[in-house]
Design brief:
The complex is a heterodimer. Chain A is α+β, with helices and mostly antiparallel strands. Helix content of chain A is 20%, strand content 20%. Chain A has one domain: Sulfite Oxidase, Chain A, domain 2. In chain A, strand 2 and strand 3 form a beta hairpin. The longest helix of chain B is centred in the first third of the chain and has 30 residues. The chains are: A alpha+beta, B mainly alpha.
Chain lengths: 324, 208
């Protein structure tokens, strides 16, 4: 084996110290830059900035302003991009900023809604049939999430009462039960155990018939994007957002109080009624104040989300601390 | 030693990257519909991540023999404290607007806030005694015993996260799993070392 002796390296071949240090400096700079970029990319994996996806929506023709009392909130509208990129829709994702992307390819035609149970004329509507029940109205409602944030949303829809009248409820029908589509192939997070699927909700008959309770099929003058509950969802503006069930496939008229998903998941935290009530705190959130999306400060939460004049009479004589 | 200095520069810079990107996204209006919630959640997660990173250093050092790592443990802990302080600030400032009474009421009526506050307050003495001077002043043994409190901080932090989540507990449980591994490792090592009297040694770290 040939081993070079140390003195066989000529002094002229030894790298000058200056260059050696330069090289070291360069390598370190590169290492620092590379690691910083890697950390940045890792951060981006988890903290995704929201961008509006190209949801396929169509303009809705013939929208009329609503005549119902309380259906035109006078506050400034929440920007469309915020409404469509900040969604609680656990069927797609438990991350509010991921729902829009995960739901982008959710196809909602064909779609049927079966209105059944205690009714004279139970019936299954396809989407076009449903849209013919009543002309579309614009309803500008406050939406208060149980998590302490709120929006002002220009929904398009019509009173649920108009649909219920079509099927002629029997007098024995005291409650209305709603059900979301169950299809884990299309709603991927239904494969998880995050909630008991399908999502179900319920209203008392007088709540369901109240003119402010609507079936929404659009927002901002266009059909609902998937992440907001396409093709048809409930909107009950005086209750916390989770009562306003999305992507409905079944409406059942029943005699007894039906189960409601969040109530079943955590009965001590979410009641059947879930009326917006600043005086009844959620165990993990005070409900006294809320942050309006787009604002830095917080504002006081109003009883019944500001719809007390229209709906408080429905609960006369009820202890709303007990029936929260 | 120059290598230690460079390692520290790497860790220091990388630890600031999330904050820098958050600030960048804020400037460009890219934090989503609810920027405050985003910043609050992200700073909370970063606190937990740095706590777990700090707790990973000792096992990793022992398993790999990469002893230089111990030189960045203090910095990792201080970053946990830093992001924890930012996390608390978002609550004090933007949720409660410095209303002390409200915060006290909130703390004692909501277990997750109580646990979070406790964990943060427990970090304060650890951060204060993190300097070489304080290590000398307390003596290695006492300092070491005091800093065992970081285990309670981490457990409290993960519990705080678990308690706030509404339904999907997968992330808090993932943090809990990693924490259990890290604490389990220590229990195991302690158990194996029992009987062998082993002096605790914590020397003041090199500053450079």
């Amino acid at each position: 084996m040939l081993i070079k002796k140390a003195d066989s390296i000529k002094s002229s071949e030894i790298t000058d110290k200056k260059f050696y240090l330069n090289r070291r400096f360069f390598l370190r700079g590169a290492a620092l830059a590379a690691s910083t970029v890697a950390t940045g990319l890792l951060y981006r994996q988890f903290a995704v900035p929201s961008a509006e996806p190209p949801a396929e929506v169509e303009k809705i023709a013939g929208v009329q302003p609503s005549q119902s009392a309380g259906s035109n909130a006078s506050e400034g509208l929440t920007p469309r991009g915020d409404i469509t990129n900040y969604n609680n829709f656990y069927e797609f994702s438990t991350s509010k900023t991921s729902v829009a992307e995960r739901a982008r390819n959710f196809i909602t035609r064909p779609w049927t809604i079966s209105v059944e149970g205690l009714a004279n004329k139970p019936r299954t509507f396809d989407l076009d049939g449903l849209l013919k029940v009543a002309p579309p109205e614009e309803r500008i409602y406050r939406l208060r999430c149980v998590e302490g944030w709120s929006m002002v949303i220009p929904w398009i829809g019509f009173s649920l009462a108009k649909l219920l009248n079509e099927v002629e409820p029997l007098s024995s029908a005291k409650y209305v039960a709603f059900q979301t589509l169950y299809d884990p192939k299309r709603m991927r997070n239904q494969r998880s155990n995050d909630l008991k699927w399908p999502y179900v909700e319920g209203l008392r008959m007088d709540e369901a018939l109240h003119p402010l309770t609507i079936l929404a099929t659009g927002l901002y003058g266009e059909t609902l994007p998937p992440q907001n509950g396409a093709p048809v969802r409930l909107v009950v503006p005086w209750k916390y957002g989770f009562k306003s069930i999305k992507s409905i496939v079944k409406i059942n008229l029943v005699a007894d109080e039906p189960p409601a998903t969040w109530n079943v998941a955590a009965p001590s935290e979410y009641g059947f009624y879930s009326n917006v009530n600043p005086k009844v705190a959620h165990p993990r959130w005070s409900q006294a104040r809320e942050r309006r999306i787009g604002e830095w400060g917080t504002r006081p939460t109003l009883p019944f989300n500001g719809y007390g004049e229209e709906v408080a009479h429905l609960y006369q004589g009820m202890d709303l601390r007990k029936y929260f | 030693m120059k290598d230690i200095k460079f390692l520290k520069v790497i860790v220091f810079t990388n630890s600031l990257v999330p904050l820098a990107l958050m600030f960048w996204d804020w400037l460009h209006n890219r934090l989503g519909a609810n920027p405050l919630e985003f910043v609050q959640r992200t700073t909370g997660m970063l606190t937990l991540i740095f706590l777990l990173l700090g707790l990973t250093i000792t096992p990793l050092r022992k398993l790999t023999g990469f002893n230089l790592l111990i030189q960045v443990r203090r910095m990792t802990g201080l970053y946990a404290f830093f992001y924890g302080a930012l996390h608390l600030l978002t609550y004090v400032w933007f949720d409660k607007f410095f209303a002390l009474q409200e915060m006290v009421a909130d703390t004692f009526s909501r277990p997750f806030i109580l646990v979070g506050m406790f964990s943060f307050l427990l970090m304060v003495p650890l951060a204060v005694t993190s300097t070489n001077k304080m290590i000398k002043r307390l003596g290695g043994k006492r300092w070491s015993r005091l800093h065992k409190a970081v285990y309670a901080v981490a457990i409290g932090g993960v519990l705080h996260y678990y308690l706030i989540v509404k339904a999907d507990t997968s992330l808090p449980l993932a943090f809990a799993f990693v924490l259990a591994l890290l604490l389990g490792y220590r229990l195991l090592v302690n158990h194996l070392d029992e009987g062998k009297a082993k002096p605790l040694s914590i020397a003041p770290q090199s500053r450079r």
